[in-house]
C-alpha cells in the first residue's frame, strides 16, 4: 500500500465484533470503518454510547484486535507499520514513546502517588529526574489538582480528580499521536477549559489527535473534522 507522507494514521475497512458466549449473541462494534488522519490534524468522533467509538481507539492502541482491516501508522522509529500486525514489543515501544491514550478511567498503579504517576510518564519518554519533577509540578498546577494530593495515592480521588490526573500523565509525554476517549466526561466547565488549553498547545506543537466526545460544545472550533458513529458505521 502506498502512503502519503502527510498522513499520520490510515484505517482501512476496520471491523470488530464481540461474542457474548453465555447468550450466543454477537455484537458488531464497528463495521467497515475507514479513516485517514493527517499529521497535526485533530479529528473528533461523536455518537451514542455503544455506537462503536471506543472500539476504534482501542484498536489503534491495540487494546483489542479487529477481525478484519488494517491500521497503518507512520511511526518515527518503524516507518509505516500496520498496528494490527505489529509485535507486542513494537506496540509497547509505541505506547511508551509515540502514542498516548487518555481514558475516562484511571488505571491505578499500586503504591504510586499522583506526582509519581506524572513523573514516571516523563521518565518513560526519556526525560531526566529534574525535568520529570519540574514538568509534573507544572502540569499538576495547570489542572489545579490540590498540592495536598500530589503525594497521596489516587484511589481516594474523586472521578474528576482521577480524570485530570489521567489527562496530565498522557499529555506531559507530548506524544506524536494522542487518542482521547471522552476526556471531559466528568469535568466541570473550568476544568474543561484547562483541557482545551493543553489540546490547543499540543496542536500548535504538531501533535496528531483523534478523540471521541459527547460534548459537542467542547469540540467547536477545536476539531478540524468531525464524524458521527451510528450502529458501528461512520458518517461524515
Automatic annotation (TrEMBL):
GO molecular function: ATP binding; ATP hydrolysis activity
Protein name: ATP-binding cassette domain-containing protein
Matching PROSITE patterns: ABC_TRANSPORTER_2
Location of the ABC transporter domain: 9-236
Gene3D superfamilies named in the record: P-loop containing nucleotide triphosphate hydrolases
PANTHER family listed in its UniProt record: PHOSPHONATES UTILIZATION ATP-BINDING PROTEIN PHNK-RELATED
UniProt keyword terms in alphabetical order: ATP-binding, Nucleotide-binding
Source species: Holdemania massiliensis
Phylogenetic placement of the source organism: Bacteria, Bacillati, Bacillota, Erysipelotrichia, Erysipelotrichales
Keyword Transit peptide found: no
InterPro entries listed in its UniProt record: AAA+_ATPase (IPR003593), ABC_transporter-like_ATP-bd (IPR003439), P-loop_NTPase (IPR027417)
GO biological process, one term: organic phosphonate catabolic process
A Pfam family this chain is assigned to: ABC_tran
Membrane-spanning intervals of the chain: none
Amino acid at each position: 500500500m502506498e502512503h502519503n507522507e502527510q498522513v499520520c494514521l490510515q484505517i482501512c475497512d476496520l471491523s470488530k465484533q464481540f461474542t457474548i458466549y453465555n447468550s450466543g449473541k454477537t455484537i458488531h462494534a464497528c463495521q467497515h470503518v475507514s479513516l485517514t488522519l493527517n499529521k497535526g490534524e485533530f479529528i473528533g468522533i461523536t455518537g451514542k454510547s455503544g455506537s462503536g467509538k471506543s472500539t476504534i481507539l482501542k484498536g489503534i492502541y491495540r487494546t483489542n484486535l479487529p477481525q478484519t482491516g488494517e491500521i497503518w501508522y507512520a511511526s518515527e522509529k518503524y516507518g509505516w507499520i500496520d498496528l494490527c500486525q505489529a509485535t507486542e514489543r513494537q506496540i509497547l515501544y509505541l505506547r511508551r514513546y509515540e502514542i498516548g491514550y487518555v481514558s475516562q478511567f484511571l488505571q491505578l498503579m499500586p503504591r504510586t502517588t499522583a506526582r509519581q504517576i506524572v513523573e514516571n510518564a516523563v521518565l518513560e519518554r526519556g526525560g531526566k529526574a529534574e525535568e520529570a519533577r519540574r514538568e509534573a509540578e507544572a502540569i499538576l498546577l495547570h489542572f489545579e489538582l490540590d498540592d495536598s494530593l500530589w503525594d497521596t495515592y489516587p484511589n481516594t480521588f474523586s472521578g474528576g480528580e482521577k480524570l485530570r490526573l489521567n489527562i496530565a500523565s498522557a499529555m506531559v509525554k507530548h506524544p506524536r499521536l494522542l487518542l482521547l476517549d471522552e476526556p471531559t466526561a466528568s469535568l466541570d466547565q473550568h476544568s474543561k477549559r484547562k483541557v482545551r488549553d493543553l489540546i490547543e498547545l499540543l496542536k500548535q506543537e504538531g501533535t496528531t489527535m483523534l478523540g471521541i466526545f459527547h460534548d459537542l460544545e467542547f469540540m467547536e472550533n477545536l476539531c478540524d473534522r468531525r464524524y458521527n458513529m451510528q450502529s458501528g458505521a461512520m458518517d461524515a
